[in-house]
Structures are given as structure tokens and as C-alpha cells.
Design a protein that fits this description.
This protein is α/β, with parallel strands linked by helices. It contains 11 helices and 10 strands. The chain is elongated, with a radius of gyration of 27 Å.
């Protein structure tokens, strides 16, 4: 749909909602719920409970916007935005579009040059990361793993050497299988944390090795789950004998590198002093001359 010249377009507001404790609702959320022209909600029943808890009476139209109707409803909402409406998008918990409906609508709005803004709110990803006790300086969010065992293992193998801390969402009835798969791929001693029911009455953060956590989860776990896994450690340099060092230098020389540069490169690969590689090359040359 092309917006007619001179038409004032609306604005799409992504609103973070509490992941547990309703008192965590951002102050602007109530105002946006009360004034939006259209509220697109992942679950209208949960929206009703949220507005009641915040003592808010929405003035705008409320429509459902969930995985099953996201594709079909997006054009309708973009049309409302193009016509000047203020559209508020809320999901069941946390920030829309982060493992929740919203990405399609944001992408469609951006394509039409419609302004998109946000009401920042609680995040299970950042909350779990902060509580995990694992490194937080660099991390990556992997969302939900595939349900099928083979696909799950394949996805985990893709990040087996990832150095950053990994964050996952998981359903409670699949947690034991997921932790067992992680222990298989990452190693049972890799540190992790299972964060359950964050900010709710029965909040629990269970820390330990993947092997320990898999055994614990086998007994059954309930609630909303976020799993944080330590990144892979730095791999120790491969231990190479003198013959292999000489062979690698020779390969580089044959490819056009000067011996000095070849020795330096092989030393860096092997994590050794350049002198050690140089001595191996000289020893091999002397041995060949003597032979």
C-alpha cells in the first residue's frame, strides 16, 4: 500500500510487558494502553487481565495478533498505521518480536517508512543472563531450539565452539531432553544456569554443570524456563612434533612465502616461539645434508 502524499502516518509502539511480577510494568505502559487507537495483543484474555491489574480502560480497538494470524493481520495493521493510527503491540510477556509475534509487523512498517518506537520493559533474556553468574560481557540469544531431537543436536553443534555466553528459551516438558543434548554436544562439565519463573513467587535459579542440571531436570520441572550456558573455552594450541612443523613451513614456502614469514606463521598457529620452529627447520636441513 502506498501512502498518499501529505498523509500523516501513525506510529507503531512495541510495549514490553511484565514477565512475572505486575509491579514491573513500565510506567508508560498504562498510558499507552489507555490512549492507543489499536491494541494488537498476542492473547486478548491476558491483555484484559493486564489492563485490570493496571486499572486501565483501553479506548482503542483491541485485536488479536499471534503466530497463527500474524501473516494475515499484518497488512490490516499497516493500513491502520498508514491512515494515522497509533498501534500498540503487546505480547504475553516481555518485548514483542523477541521470540514472540512482532517481527513481521515491524518489518512491514519500516518498509513503509512508518515510525516504530518502543516502551522498554522486562526481559527474560537479560534477567536470566544477569542472574546466571556466567560471563555477561558478550552473549548471544538463540531463542527456542527445534523440537525434533536430530534438528536440536544439529543446531547445538553449530554453536559448540561459540565463545560467547548462550541464552535459550525452553518449554518445561522439553527441558530434560534439551539439557541432555547440551551435555552431549558441549560437554557435561560446561557450566550453565536454569532460570525458572523469573520475578514470580516461585522464582528459582539452578546453577551447575550441564550434566548436573540434566539429571536434576529429569525429575520434571515446571514454569517458564530460560537457560544460560557458558561459552566454549579457548582451545589449547595443537601439539605438533618437529616433523609436522617442518612440513608446514615447507608447504608455505612452496606456496611462495619467504622462510622467515613461513616460520613466523607456523609458530603462531602452533602457539610456539619462533625460535623453536626455526630450530626444527635447521635440524631437518642438517639431517638431510648429512644423509
Amino acid at each position: 500500500m502506498t501512502v498518499a502524499p501529505g498523509t500523516t502516518t501513525g506510529i507503531l509502539v512495541l510495549a514490553g510487558t511484565p514477565i512475572g511480577d505486575i509491579a514491573d510494568a513500565p510506567p508508560r505502559l498504562a498510558e499507552e494502553l489507555a490512549t492507543a487507537d489499536v491494541i494488537a495483543a498476542e492473547d486478548t484474555r491476558r491483555l484484559r487481565r493486564l489492563t485490570q491489574a493496571l486499572d486501565v480502560q483501553p479506548a482503542g480497538r483491541v485485536v488479536s495478533y499471534f503466530e497463527g494470524n500474524e501473516s494475515a493481520r499484518t497488512p490490516e495493521l499497516v493500513e491502520a498505521l498508514a491512515g494515522g493510527a497509533r498501534v500498540l503491540l503487546v505480547t504475553d510477556a516481555g518485548m514483542p518480536s523477541v521470540s514472540d509475534p512482532g517481527y513481521r509487523l515491524v518489518a512491514a512498517a519500516v518498509e513503509k517508512d512508518i515510525r516504530v518506537t518502543a516502551v522498554p520493559g522486562p526481559s527474560a533474556v537479560l534477567t536470566a543472563l544477569a542472574l546466571s553468574g556466567l560471563p555477561v560481557d558478550r552473549f548471544c540469544f538463540e531463542g527456542f531450539l527445534p523440537r525434533k531431537a536430530g534438528e536440536r543436536l544439529s543446531r547445538l553443534r553449530e554453536v559448540a565452539e561459540e565463545r560467547r555466553t548462550l541464552v535459550y528459551f525452553e518449554a518445561p516438558h522439553r527441558l530434560d531432553d534439551t539439557l541432555a543434548a547440551m551435555a552431549e554436544v558441549f560437554g557435561g562439565e560446561r557450566r550453565a544456569a536454569v532460570c525458572r519463573e523469573l520475578t514470580k513467587t516461585y522464582e528459582e535459579v539452578r546453577r551447575g554443570s550441564l550434566g548436573e542440571l540434566a539429571a536434576w531436570a529429569a525429575e520434571g520441572v515446571r514454569g517458564e524456563i530460560t537457560v544460560v550456558v557458558e561459552g566454549a573455552g579457548e582451545k589449547a594450541p595443537e601439539k605438533l612434533d618437529a616433523a609436522e612443523l617442518v612440513r608446514r613451513v615447507r608447504v608455505r614456502e612452496e606456496a611462495g612465502e619467504r622462510r622467515k614469514e613461513a616460520i613466523a606463521a607456523v609458530a603462531a598457529e602452533a602457539g610456539l616461539p619462533k625460535r623453536e620452529v626455526f630450530d626444527a627447520v635447521v635440524a631437518a636441513k642438517n639431517a638431510n645434508a648429512a644423509g
